[in-house]
Amino acid sequence: MALFDYRGRNSEGELVQGKLDAPSRDAIINRLSDRGVIPLEVVEAGDDYSLLERLQEWRSQGQIRATDLIMFCRQMYTITKAGIPLIRGVRGLAASIRHITFKKVLHDVADQLETGVELSVAMRRHPRIFNNLFISLINVGENSGQLDEAFNQLSQYLERDLETRKSVKSALRYPGFVLMALVAALVVINIWVVPAFADMFKEFGAELPLPTRILIATSDFFVAYGGYLIVIVAGLVFGLKHYIKTEEGSRRWGEMSLKLPIVGDIVERASMARYTRSFALMLRSGVPLVHSLTLCSRVIDNPFLGDKIIAIREGIERGESLSQTHTNSKMFTPLVLQMIAVGEDSGQVDVLLKEVAEFYEREVDYDLASLSARIEPLMIVIMAGMVLVLALGIFLPMWNMYSLHSV
User: Which pLDDT tens digit goes with each residue over 98-129?
Assistant: First the structure.
């Protein structure tokens, strides 16, 4: 397969151009003719990508950053609101984007649009870029004639979701660095510091106290089996990552992440905020209730919670009320359940779900702001414990030897 640049005119006489993959130039001409395009020029595309761009494409592995997708939604909102034809708008965006993977995806979307398919159908060919929620809202926007509003809602949803993810990562960055520093300190102490003191104590031949013997034994173990420990830890990490990617492993990890000390509640509330916001967005856009719940179970990125959302959907299919199914899921606080019940009674479920999402997001923001204050005492205790063990293990025998020398 080779990449060709083409220029031609469609049935309305408008100039169209783009790139297509095909085995030969004649195959490109036949494909253009099938689309009703009269080819004017078909030439093999040159390799105009730099080494840095190719490295970026290899690292992305068919995915793009959330910021790129948010910018795309904003630009598409402007294009559709201004009445610019979709094909011309998508081609223009593809020409201005530096991300190679996204550029190729947009060119393919434009090529599909030229064949007469809908935008949502063209995007469905790239599930790693456009997820089910994205495609469903675009489909609703097309059918309702409010494609610009669909892109506007998507940009707001993605932006808020990105802000929440960044806040969680930022709050966990400090304790992560502290833990890494502690591990590095333990390695240095056990491999270089303790052996030096052990040799010194051995020369004196004095009886060592219990803390010192434990410290030296631990250091000897690290020195003798450090390489094996690294291999074992690396194997465990690799095996755990592989297991988490499996269906059973991802579900178990999703359940365990909600029970983690200190951060488990934050992860759960952040997931609930994402669920209620996406659910409200789809209901407001006109997506059917049952289909909305199915999409939410995939968007939430936690298979364990996804199963609970599927159980909510099954309850709705059995004829149960929205508030009753959410109560049975045992995922929500009584206050949130009351808000859902009021929304169901008043016919404003989407409005109340949006309020629930904002309620959870405010709680997450507050918890993240106080997370460092909650973790710092634990870190201080751990560091104090390390210092105490070192002091007892190293300085006790030195004091004993000094006392004996004084006598």
Answer: 778 888 888 889 888 888 889 999 999 888 88
**pTM value > 0.85:** no
Q: How far apart are CA 72 and CA 154, in angstroms?
A: 10
d(CA 126, CA 296): 19
Cα separation, 72 vs 105, in Å, equals: 12
C-alpha span between 137 and 291 (Å, rounded)? 12
The answer to whether the CB of 395 falls within 8 A of the CB of 214 is: no
Q: Which of 240, 56, 80 is nearest to 155 (CA)?
A: 80
Q: Provide DSSP, 259-289.
A: TSTTTHHHHHHHHHHHHHHHHHHHHHHT--H
Which neighbouring-strand residues pair with 38? 9
| List of residues 6+ apart from 270 with CB closer than 8 A | 164, 168, 360, 364
Q: What share of the chain is helix, strand, coil (3-state, %, to 5)?
A: 75, 5, 15
The CA distances from residue 281 to 150, 275, 295, in Å, are 9, 10, 11
